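Follow-up to my earlier ticket, as requested here are the two runs.
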Amino acid sequence: MTQAGSTGGWLGAVVRNSGYLRKWLILGIAIGVIAGLGAVVFYLALEYAGEFLLGDLGGYRPPAAAAEGGERGSIGFSRAWAIPLVTFGGALISALLVAKFAPEAAGHGTDSAIEAVHTDPRSIRSRAVLVKLVSSALTIGSGGSAGREGPTAQISAGFGSLLARRLDLSDVDGRVAVSLGIGSGIGAIFGAPLGGAVLAASIVYREDFDYRALVPGFITSGTAYAVYGSLLGFDPLFGFVARDYQFVPTQLGWFLLIGVVSAGVGYLYAKVFYGTVALTKRLPGGQVLKPAVGGLLVGLLALLVPQVLASGYGWVQLASARDTLMTIPLWIVLILPFAKILATSLSIGTGGSGGIFGPGMVIGGFVGAAIWRLADLAGLPALPGGPGVFVVVAMMACFGSIAHAPLALMLMVAEMTGSFSVLPGAMITVGIAYLLITRSNVSIYESQRINRESAEAERRGEAKIVKDEFE
């Protein structure tokens, strides 16, 4: 007879025997609370790490997004020589922690959580979650080019995995629980609960949508945002960008152009990032040395282009308004998408710890800013009065296309910028970018499966192999 403890105890029995509504109310709220608290803990860890490492030691403070105070940041470097040393040191300590305690915490986190959904939703170790939190705070806080969504996704996905183990959930429910963790963690840290809910249902596939995760995703992501917002505020990350914008049919050509350029830059981002991953594996040096060298190279690049340091959200904030965008040199605006691609590849593609979602939005935001700036300089017609709308739709298109989650990204960026008025034009831009990307096999998340049928076929094949081995 099976022991109660081996099947998740009385609570596991209650959850497993509950109807659909009660089951996902219990699991959704539990995962949401942890996702919200995890996002808060990581945000604060990142703030303190950045203030000490990049601020006090490096003598440089990057600008902040509106919801984070909106400070304009430092004007130049007070101790330029210290920047490469800080980025090197932060990457080195981060890599040491990962190598010593949880090697699977290397990289951007979200991809490993997606892989867990498809292979074993019970496999995410709690230790890896804690190591990911600390190592990512060190990487980004010291100036590494990475996003904060990867660690928060892994925190909440790890809790979903823990529930799958402790409550002995079915494989189907375990996969949904981990997917909910991914979406709610990202939605919470970006203040985008609706986009986070849709992301939970779409991020694990390239050409499909997991309807089983959608409704529970509303519960989980809403709970996570309520917890996060009640402690750190409910303001949109970038404030209200292009709030009063109204779609004008004569601007259709601009949205088509942004879609095409965003797809091209997004494609380049994915290819360069995974090209760096592949090259790093072939180079000599261990799991500690390679990310440390990557951090050093990012610091040296920052001496030329300071905007590549850390998350870069504050620079997107400055690029979204005409008066502040004009204070950024034109050559910086034009080169920054490519410099950010290189910096992120060096920071995370070499084995560092952090997310690639956030840098993707910075890259896209400056694609939009560059197009607007050049068009304004040339005096071209039908141009919006400010760059905000171009910045917003390019963020959606650039990363939404290569993440194969166009709807989720449209909703998330609209929530992050308070810019739902841009959606008519954004739908055109994102649609064009996504259609172009689907003509290739490129994705920024390599662990995504094509669709539910291919994922199920893969699992049946693996199950047969295991069965044959035991026979």
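Run two:
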Amino acid sequence: MTNAVVVGSGPNGLAAALTLAAAGVEVRVLEMADRLGGGTRSSELTLPGLIHDECSAAHPLALDTPFSRRFDLTAHGLKWIWPEVQYAHPLDGGRGAAAWRSVEATADALGGRDGRRWQRLFGPLTDHFDGIAAEIVQPMLHVPRHPLAMGAFGAVSGLPAALLARRWRGDEAQALFAGVAAHAFRPFGSPMSSAVGVTLATAAHRFGWPVAEGGSSAISGAMITLLEQHGARLETGVHITSLDELGAPDIVMLDVAPAAAVDIAGDRMPHRVARGLRRFRHGPGAFKVEFAVEGGVPWTHEPSRLAGTVHVGGSLAEIAAAEKATGAGRMPERPFVLVCQQSVADPTRAKDGVHPLYAYAHVPAGYTGDATGAIEAQLERFAPGFRDRILARHVRSAVAMEEHNVNYVGGDIVTGANDPLQMVFRPRVTAHPYSLGIDGVYICSAATPPGAGAHGMCGFNAANAALKAHGIETAGTPAAPAAGLAVGGW
């Protein structure tokens, strides 16, 4: 019987393990931490009974993928819930903008020329998003099945975010796009910096930005349940530093960052592969604060009170300046802050009127300072009285993010810079992104296509590559096109 060892139990490691186990492979999963789940772990971080998501929180791009169609996690404890407003962007003076699942509703709220331009851009992309997403969950080097849709998508995604945002004239529409574009952790003047924003905005209209009921741990929990049904062995507290520690399994899956894969493989890895992986570039970091907030956040922009995700950073110009500084290694005075209000969609997350609030600021890689005050100042700016409602907080700096999860190098929670080269070729320039140049050994982390998120597609793709190499047939997936890409993370 073919056997496999999966090192790392983030959503991609678990997805790889499940894909292998379902194909009849004997699977053993080894996790360094004392809990399974990686970026999908949820914990009581502030007050007893108040559940916070430790990394991944909202999941617009995990709903209809080849992995989710192969494995119905909703039949094993996972339930998706949607907020009324998918994401919002407050501005000074109670102004702001919001995105609904309906393109038309979003355009109507923006109004006038900007509303019509939002409709003209995102209407056709939403209509064809299934075909687009079917292409972008794969490695980029393939013959597209939907060339016309991909051409339309590429024409706008290849633009610098600062340029595409000028398509709209008003502060509200510009800021609404700037907030999703900032998920890329890239300066707005760089090529292809629109790609993440265009993808996420379109996904909001096609699928929404749901949360997992009870916390993101429900995602990994459903995978763990299925793995146990397939007889997989799951072990925690096991730190692997060398392939020699694994014995001689037929397949090895490494859910680790590229540099860690090089270290684990050692001399077995061909020099050219090791050189390519060592060149992998990580992006800026995240400084995360969890709050216990009495009564929720008192946003002056009313739709923000109904939003599952709120982008906090002010105008397009302000966010662009903050992202440019962060990318250059300078801490901005007013950083871009991403806020998730999971209890807006999932009331079970609140307890006795106290709500968990998830917030992280973009900071320079490896930032050693304290951004807590800057995060709170940004929230207080758009929600006066916020500080008075804080009952408890839990702080995890960029350095602590890496200590908590070694894949988040320098606090890089999306596992790799979204620069043009790495958006096309990750983790190295090759037609075989999951291969490590060693028979039976593969990398399946978010450093591989299609990138970060709790969708499991990196692990699914890598595991299928391994099964194909070993001549093992896999069960087919429904023929409908996929819809899912995680580019940027939150």
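The only thing I checked on run two: Residues 112-127 form the longest helix (16 residues). Let me know what else you need.
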